[in-house]
Description:
The chain is an all-alpha fold. It is 67% helix and 0% strand.
Amino acid sequence: MFNVFMLYEVNPTTWFYLSWLMITGIFFKFRRVWSVRNLDLFLLLSLGPGLLLIGNNFYWGYVVTLSVLFLLVIRMLCDPMMNRRPLLEVNLSKSGLIFCCVALMLFNIAGLVLTQTRDYSESQVNASLEQLMMFHLNSQLLDAEESQNATTGNGESGSLASGAGVGNAENVAKVKNPSLVHAPGLPFFTRLSDFPRTWRYEKIQNIQNIQNAGVNPTRPQNATTRMAREQLNTPAVQLGHFPVFPIRQIRWTIFLATLAQIAIVTGIVMTGWAHFENFNTGIAAATLYLLLPYVCQIPSRLDHLIPGALIVWAVFSWRLPALSGVLLGIAAALCYYPLFLFPLWCAFYWSRGLWRFLLTSVGTFLFLICISIPIAGGWSEFLAQSGDIFGCIGLFSRSAAGFWEIEGQSVFYRLPVIAIYMMLVLFLTFWPSRKNIGTLMSSSAALMAGAQFCHPFQGGTYMAWFLPLMILVIFRPNLEDRTAYRTIGRRRRRLVSMSASENL
């Protein structure tokens, strides 16, 4: 009976159509078809087809996703110029929104647990986009390793996850080796985030090594070997002949992913309640976030969720520069790219709170870097991994997996994009000159979305970094009076003025 009622599973295509219908029914303004709200919903929903194509290993999925992200970045850049922001109520009551938000959160947690602990058969391989993306990436890494071994002429396996090659440099240069498989950041965090993928990769690699034992690639394979290799290429063999994870090894992945997702949703609701002064707006924004296909179908990527949660709560804590600095410093140390938010936030706190934010953010970043030295195994090991920690491998890697997976050295094609992104960081630091919390959210969302164009590994899929901020920008009211100068230290100034009046 448990198997009949408790095996919750919605494949990516079905969830895409369901979310499209539910988002349209709840949030679409039928009486104002040509409103900006409807345009925003269309852009957010347009991210779904790209993810489906990426999950099914179509290169054009990255093209579609980054094209939509380009339009969303333009939308975020235009947001500070939209002064008239009427309150557009959703098509559902407050009680209905709360029920939908809680139910979607429970279904998200259930999907996270089931997709990480179930055995996969051939009919269940399409359980989530995350599983499909891991499946195709592992297959790509195995093919590259076979090619590399055949080119170098020995049977030793190259360490693709860390970028180490096998054999002489001339032969290795001829092999397309996707060395980067995660976002840059501290080694212990990247290892924790990569555990779901690397565990599957090692299991698949073991099966392949067993089946390829004693096979000479230079001579024709017999019928038995060909049949074994054909079976290896089927999803049932790669994902079905062993459990996805031992539960003892993934309990921290499940726990941290659940905690991060709850933190994102709670941060969205609290931001709407405290800073927009409208609880309905906060719960509506959280419901829209949970309805998007990305949230349901990529449930356990810690390198997506934890930085996203930290950025959301940094925005919520904007009245406390020291706390926002600590949160952004942790996010920058874990995945590097939030480091590009520092100039923007320094410009926001320029009139008041600058030193508190700057000292805490930079101090937290450097503190985490320092404690990662013994965790990495000493100074020499830390220096060997410093390129990955500080984003040098991420930004300037000569290999890629995703949109930048093109023939030749893709880094030379990425350099102009990186230069444009740096110009965007500089531009948003000085424009608009008078920043409020609304422009801070839209500019932060634009920068985190723009970072997807620079990231060579599955760039465009790290949507938790910017989707919560974009949704808050879509629902936000006019916040021109919420500036750092007017808000930070207001309570202290009020107490000082009251004490002065009492003395008089």
